[in-house]
Amino acid sequence: MLLTLEPRGQQSRAMLWFSPLLAALLTLLSGALLFAVLGHPPLETLKVLLIDPVSDLYGLSELLVKALPIMLCALGLAVVYSARIWNIGAEGQLLIGALAGSAVAVNIIEWESQWALVITLLVGTLGGAAWGALCAWLKTAFNANEILTSIMLNYIALNLLLFCVHGPLKDPEGFNFPESAMFGDATRLPQIVEDLRVHGGLYFALLALVAVWVLLQRSFLGFQIKVMGLDKRAAGFVGFRDKWLVWVTLLISGGLAGLAGVAEVTGPIGQLVPQVSPGYGYAAITVAFLGRLHPLGIVFASLLMALLYLGGENAQMAANLPQSITQLFQGMVLFFLLACDVLILYRPRLKGIAKLKAGRSAKEATA
Fold first, then answer.
1. Residue 323: partners with Cβ closer than 8 Å, 6 or more residues away
2. What is the pLDDT of residue 14?
């Protein structure tokens, strides 16, 4: 018997949602095998990685703290990817949002007005949107590939942030550490639960979740975005302006990533530091596809990715595993997801060897 793949006449909706679950299962099995090869007890190590970090209330709160920036970035990517515009720059847009908001916050430390936080968040969001607008301008004006431009802008954003924390935004009383001064209380997001780090950014994530769902599922703009993603020529025939949609989607994606960045510095961190993001923007790409570009799917995928971040930190301390274990699991999830997505387009079939040879002979005879 031989296993072959037959093209499906129509995409399988069941496999559309089953393949992420299959990818997660294959990731767990591969991780267990890897731990066994490294000499670690597989089940115990998986427990350290995936269960111990959320075994108490504090761990669950930390899970939300990690998930919020990933979710905001992934929701923005869901919008832009629905139009088949491949923005890989959420990381840079997040960093610019954190940098722009911090530049405002360190200059209004003495303010006690409620508007201080509003202005800081608004500037950070606009900063991320402006960074996304650079990709839109390069694509619409020069037909530059947005994959390449957005990736390169990530490195520019990172180096711009490093320059600022080592230079103009560096705390003069910070003992020469590359970090800004601590923000004033008026520019800090409030804690939702006392003694836990869950902050007001949760409300923005929930608001963004509803807004993106309405946009993609219930609005005419969302319909235009999806039509453009399915067939750009068809969108042009019915009068949808593709360049305008490129601008809109990249501005939304950049704005949500910028909001994620400024929420990080005004929330759990409280200042601008070089390690403001351990790769949330890149992780959001995997989350967007793992969640099938659907807001609800993105929620669960964000929690899973946040768990990998927490588990990686816990495995470092408890099992003496390297910090790169988080990136390894993220890579395995994406690899297996792409592999399992073959099942959406193709149907596995078992064919007999004799039947296969007969088919080949018939083809040779007709040739």
1. 312, 313, 316
2. 76
